[in-house]
Specification:
The chain contains four helices and eleven strands, in the order βββαβββββαααβββ. The protein is of the alpha+beta class and about 170 residues long. A hairpin with a 2-residue loop joins β6 and β7. The N and C termini lie far apart (about 45 Å). About 25% of the residues are buried.
C-alpha cells in the first residue's frame, strides 16, 4: 500500500495507526510553491500528490489590468496581483503548465506528473470508476499533449472540443 503509513502518538502511552493515503494539493504554478518544496513533496509522498492551479478568471486574458467581479487585478506573465499592490491575487497558470513545472522541478516523469493532475484527484474524490483514467466504461474526458506538455486536443465525453493547429495527421 502506498501513501503515508505512520504511527502518531496522541498522548503518552496511546497511539493510533494510520493505514490510509494522505492526499495533499500542491500549487505547481511556479509562483506559490518553491521548486524545493515540489521536490520534497514528490519524494515523500508521490502517490498522493494532487496538482492544483489556483487559476482565477483572468487566466487566458493576457497581460494587463482586468476587472474580475469587483476586484481589479494586474496580470504580468503567470502572476496576477491586486492592482496597485504586490499582493498575489491568484494564478493564471493552466493545468498543463503546472504539470510541466511539477515534472521539471520534482524530477518525476511525465506519466507521474499527469497522474497528479488526473488519477490522484479522482482517487481522492473516490470517482476513479468514472474519471482520472481511460479505462473502459469511464467518462471520455481527456487531452492529447506532446512531450513538452502543450495541449494538442481536448475531448469531452469523447467529442473533440478543441484541436490545436499544431496537431498534424492525428485527425486525417
Amino acid at each position: 500500500s502506498s501513501g503515508i503509513n505512520a504511527e502518531w502518538s496522541l498522548r503518552p502511552g496511546s497511539s493510533v495507526k494510520l493505514n490510509r493515503k494522505c492526499y495533499y494539493g500542491i500549487i505547481a504554478d511556479g509562483l506559490h510553491t518553491h521548486p524545493a518544496a515540489l521536490r520534497i513533496a514528490h519524494r515523500t509522498n508521490a502517490p498522493c500528490a494532487v496538482l492544483v492551479t489556483d487559476a482565477m478568471a483572468a487566466m487566458g486574458l493576457g497581460d494587463g489590468s482586468h476587472c474580475i467581479g469587483s476586484q481589479s487585478v494586474t496580470v504580468t506573465g503567470k502572476k496576477a496581483v491586486i492592482s496597485g499592490t504586490e499582493t498575489l491575487a491568484g494564478s493564471v497558470a493552466t493545468m498543463n503548465s503546472c504539470v510541466e513545472n511539477f515534472m521539471r522541478n520534482s524530477g518525476c516523469t511525465l506519466v507521474e506528473a499527469v497522474n497528479c493532475a488526473t488519477k490522484h484527484p479522482a482517487q481522492l474524490l473516490k470517482c476513479v470508476d468514472l474519471y482520472g483514467t481511460l479505462d473502459f466504461g469511464t467518462v471520455a474526458d481527456f487531452v492529447i499533449i506532446d512531450t513538452d506538455v502543450n495541449v494538442l486536443a481536448t475531448f469531452i465525453g469523447g467529442d473533440c472540443v478543441y484541436k490545436s493547429d499544431n496537431i498534424v495527421g492525428f485527425f486525417d
